[in-house]
Design brief:
The complex is a heterodimer.
Chain A (H helix, E strand, L loop, with lengths): L14 H8 L7 H27 L8 H26 L6 H23 L13 H4 L3 H22 L7 H12 L5 H6 L8 H22 L1
Helix pairs in contact in A: 1-2, 2-3, 2-4, 3-4, 4-6, 6-7, 6-9, 7-9
Chain B lengths: L7 H11 L12 H20 L2 H6 L16 H11 L6 H13 L1 H21 L7
Helix pairs in contact in B: 1-2, 1-4, 1-6, 2-4, 5-6
Classes of the chains: A mainly alpha, B mainly alpha.
Chain lengths: 222, 133
């Protein structure tokens, strides 16, 4: 089984398997999956929380910055674990880690905002206080926002990674977006009036090459 | 003039499979759906004959939809894509700049993928032999 050995990145589970096991408390891999989840995403979440804290800059935060970020990180995990991990179980972007990262980022930002508003009431007006219910609902609105953010981040990353003399940069980005976010398959491209001349292999090559580029870029950022 | 029970992508699938010159005569289609497809076919023929396809697609290239109308519901735009897909007009330049717009505009990207998903699924339903297996 794939769970019994590590892949080339040192992960036991594929991304989709990881989310499935983390969202299923009855799974025999639940604890292992959560350990891997923390190993894979804690640093990303920590970074997003720290960025948000730095952006909001409530008074005295700098005196206890690390402790605050750790607190928010714990609070976010509690939120993800609530109701037998319902938020993860209901997450519908399991096919794309990029969408998941955008989703995590949004939760990290909102958890940070809620935490700071609660603990720095004198600084933030009460009218801005918000609830975290959004995580528990089958949140189409949030997923839509996450998809939009993923869309924008993918485009920005791929444009920055593209060679300056690349001829088909925009077309390739478009193919990748349609493939990952809109779940187009090779046959759909072949039937599409604007893509039908490019051929199966081009779609496969573009998608694989783009994934590798994004993965390398992500590794570098981390 | 959108149809209440037939999405644009579905109607385009009938156009791609049955026209020109045959008009759709699917037994399962209501009169209003047949009429809708016929209106689209006339519009598509006009775009083809007057050579407007590239300029219609090009009108959506470059600028952002915050200032201009997007492609959502723009029948002329999607019909132009079909005309360009027929291969009778040069498409590389205008399509390339439209791709750039799609990558900048999430709303247009969503509309574009929705219509062509409907188009593909309807063509599969119609059993187009030209589709790759």
């Amino acid at each position: 089984m794939t769970q019994d050995r590590l892949n080339h990145r040192g992960n036991r589970f594929s991304f989709e398997e990881l989310l499935t096991h983390c969202g299923d408390v009855s799974s025999c891999y639940w604890q292992i999956a959560w350990a891997e989840f923390e190993n894979r995403y804690d640093r990303f979440i920590y970074k997003k929380i720290a960025e948000r804290c730095a952006a909001m800059r409530p008074p005295r935060l700098c005196l206890q910055f690390s402790a605050t970020v750790e607190d928010i990180l714990s609070e976010m995990k509690v939120t993800l674990l609530k109701h037998d991990c319902r938020a993860l179980r209901n997450f519908r972007g399991k096919h794309s880690e990029t969408i998941f990262l955008a989703w995590l980022k949004q939760i990290a930002h909102r958890t940070t905002r809620a935490y700071l508003q609660r603990n720095y009431k004198e600084y933030f007006s009460e009218t801005e206080t918000m609830s975290l219910d959004f995580v528990h609902c089958a949140d189409q609105q949030n997923e839509g926002q996450a998809r939009r953010e993923a869309f924008q981040e993918i485009v920005a990353s791929l444009r920055s990674l593209a060679a300056c003399n690349a001829r088909n940069t925009e077309r390739d980005i478009n193919i990748f977006l349609l493939y990952t976010l809109s779940e187009f398959n090779a046959d759909m491209f072949m039937s599409h009036p604007l893509f039908k001349r490019i051929g199966h292999r081009v779609v496969d090559n573009v998608v694989n090459r783009t994934r590798d580029r994004l993965a390398q870029s992500s590794d570098l950022r981390n | 003039m959108p149809h209440r029970n037939m999405r644009l992508g579905q109607a385009m699938a009938y156009l791609a499979e049955l026209s020109p010159p045959t008009k759709p005569k699917g037994g399962d289609l209501s009169d209003s759906k047949v009429l809708y497809i016929e209106v689209l076919e006339q519009e598509m023929r006009r775009i083809r004959e007057q050579g407007e396809a590239t300029s219609i697609i090009g009108s959506h290239a470059g600028s952002c939809c915050d200032k201009n109308a997007g492609i959502d519901g723009d029948e002329a735009f999607f019909l132009s894509c079909l005309v360009v897909g027929e291969g009778s007009v040069e498409q590389s330049e205008v399509v390339a700049s439209f791709m750039e717009h799609l990558n900048n505009c999430y709303a247009c990207f969503c509309a574009f993928s929705e219509v062509f998903r409907d188009y593909y699924q309807q063509r599969m339903t119609l059993g187009d032999k030209s589709l790759p297996s």
